[in-house]
Amino acid sequence: MSGNPRAGARGAGFTLIEAMVVIAIISVLAAIAVPVYERYTAVARAQDVAEDFHAAISAVADAMSGAQAGQATLIALGNTQGVPAAAPASGSGVPVLSDRLMDPAAFATTGGASPINFAYIGSSGTTFTVPAYCGEVDVVGEGPKAPATATGAWINPGITRSVYLSVGVGRTCGNDAPLGQDIINAIVANGSSAPLPVADSTGHTVSPCLSGVTACYAEVGSNGSITP
């Protein structure tokens, strides 16, 4: 009962060497875990972009079928990156592809991203566009027909031409090159684009989705055919 209390106190704690060993083990585990987690989140973002692109292709194909039955469809609004989305114009309805969904990979854009980055940008025209942001999906369709007025990508009754889709990948993701390649891999893996040039039913060539490009492409014909 009259032993040295200091000896008991030393026995109940950790020595400096023991504490250093514990810290070293934690550091090693963190060094392993952090890159694994970063790789996991990058792959997850790439898959999100690929799913957005695939959803756009499916939405266009469905709208093409609806157009044959006389239905007009607003696929994607003509939002401006960095500018808050406005409500669709009266009589235009709600776009099939949400105008509130944010681009999951915009932060990786060469030169930096805007504070607000939409996943889908719609426009009218007769050719592909090159997205400005990593992960941005562009849909190029027709313009509105009265009484609708909302700008964006429309598919109207009687459409006779293709709708063009593209997504920012690869070099567009210059702030995160591995993510840019991950997006390419995910898009090719789910069949939304091809690693080689593909010709559509009218002989138009859709560019390949491969390492080094800035965008991957797909085309939906007026008869609902999808390339690739």
UniProtKB/TrEMBL annotation:
Positions of transmembrane segments: 12-37
Keyword entries, A-Z: Membrane, Transmembrane, Transmembrane helix
Keyword field contains Transmembrane helix: yes
Stored PROSITE patterns: PROKAR_NTER_METHYL
InterPro entries associated with the record: N_methyl_site (IPR012902), Pilin-like (IPR045584)
The name this protein goes by in its record: Prepilin-type N-terminal cleavage/methylation domain-containing protein
